[in-house]
């Protein structure tokens, strides 16, 4: 009985009809004939409502299911599918209220469907998460009403489903596809001209117009009586580490995502590209402590290990300990490696405090410091100031931009590779840098 009462609701039509009958009873105070009409209509309303309730509650004739993907991709659109099956012998109207995870802060979710008799229907909606971690879906509530729409019955399905939100593997696959298909320049990733021959020998092949004449193998050409050239391939199995700063400065949000999320998405994309290039990839995340470390590997499972290590990493409100980073890299990375350090510096003084550690790292490894342009500050520089306050804000913004450019020059002066990029272009620019380093044979 309690379950019946909890599942029973009345529709708007019922309350509109009840309100109209109440008005008739009110008017019967002046027009007596309306009193009898009011009672007739009230009895009719109760009778029809009972029939409507019986038709809805006679059998459990609705089945529904929420289909979730195995995992969500952070900062991308993810599809949730709802499948419904109507076993009633009449058309029903369904109102769907899905209790989506609290992280989305969406409390007005509502889908309306019309389900013909004895039919199945599928609908879907899109969710775009902006945080990594575990997301819990609550009840899938479906309110069914007959064509009369006087009463409703609530069905509950799929309570407490959990899905994990991982770094953007959709972006990773997109960049991987473009790179392998030689179309990556369409997204702003440039081709890098090969310089020198710091590559491994692969084979001798026939000369074709366009081949570098300096690679002609004269002995093979004399034997074959035609020009033959040496063909080289990129050196493989080189360790590439994504080193992610999880300190307080990486908490800054841009377009809904923190800098840490941008860095994690980029590190996943570059790891995938490096694996396709037959290099070994690894991960190190740090702040005042080491949050995650994954030794470089070249197996296909390496990408999944990196993804699992990164999906629940979060920033704290602490300054990052670069001395800890240096000691851990010195201890665990004996081989010369490419270190892609995702971090952020807002002032020149902050860079100079960490510069001794960066210089020490760059002596043994190829270090690339990746930090961010503040896009909100860039917007200020494009405005026309009308007041003294706006003028002061623009001056400060220009000083910040100038400091960022000084940081680039300071790193270059100490022979440290660097990338200064907007968060949105981070993955593209990082892959650019990696391809450039590979083509120049710097590692």
TrEMBL record:
Pfam families linked: DUF58
Biological process annotations from GO: cell division
Domain (DUF58) ranges: 204-368
Transmembrane segments: 14-33, 39-57
Keywords associated with the record: Cell cycle, Cell division, Membrane, Transmembrane, Transmembrane helix
Identification of the protein by name: Cell division protein FtsB
UniProt organism field: Christiangramia salexigens
